[in-house]
Amino acid sequence: MMVTELKSVLIVFASRFGSTDEIAHEIADELERHKILTKVHNLRDGVKTPSLEDFDGIIVGSGIKMGRWTKESYKFLKENQNKLNSKVLGLFVSSGEAANPKTYTEARRKYLERMMGKTGVKADITEAFGGVFDFSSDSTYSFLEKKIIQRLAKSVEGGIVIDDYKMNDFRDWELIRKWAKEFSNLLNT
Ligand SMILES: Cc1cc2nc3c(=O)[nH]c(=O)nc-3n(C[C@H](O)[C@H](O)[C@H](O)COP(=O)(O)O)c2cc1C
User: Fold this and answer.
1) Does the beta carbon of 18 sit less than 6 angstroms from any atom of ligand 1?
2) Which positions ≥6 away from 122 have C-beta within 8 Å?
3) pTM score of the predicted model
4) Which CATH number does 8-134+171-187 carry?
5) pLDDT single digits (tens) 43-58
6) 73 in contact with ligand 1, CB cutoff 6 A
7) From the CB of 107, is ligand 1 less than 6 Å away?
8) Beta strand pairing status for 37-42 and 167-169?
């Protein structure tokens, strides 16, 4: 009987408000559906990062706030540049600007291409997923953060229509699963 070796992927992320965390887990679920062994690692958990050598592919993600990646994900890219470039590598962000078709391309440029230039990391596949604007009663945003989001939503070209009393979730789960499937295809070629 022929035994095919299963591929393994480490998904490393940091999230300020939780949306990137959920995206990371959805990517992991989709990869598992394609028979890839996955491990999800939250850089803010304070747990030691698994050894990158143990994985065939790595995916690194971050939420965006005030134009910035989380410092943990940024540091991870900078410190592991060479190891990451020797793997099948995916990068993603969860960003408000990516939710608007008019600012999506610019979000990709600012938050993915520029980040690769800054860190020397060369990803095989990247994506800017839409994010979440949480104005529900469970929201953890401060008053100031709510104001920043309302300003951001108005300032992006064409505007992003948000409900000031609800959870506004612009994540496209179909796109997220499709991206994960593409990553699995890259890993298996
Ligand atoms: C205070 C604040 C500032 C934000 N600034 C930006 C921004 O500059 N650009 C952007 O694309 N999205 C911005 N967003 C939207 C976030 O990227 C979006 O909420 C994302 O889902 C956050 O990911 P996280 O929940 O993993 O932290 C901001 C959100 C908040 C709460």
Assistant:
1) yes
2) 85, 89, 116
3) 0.96
4) 3.40.50.360
5) 999 999 999 999 999 9
6) no
7) yes
8) unpaired
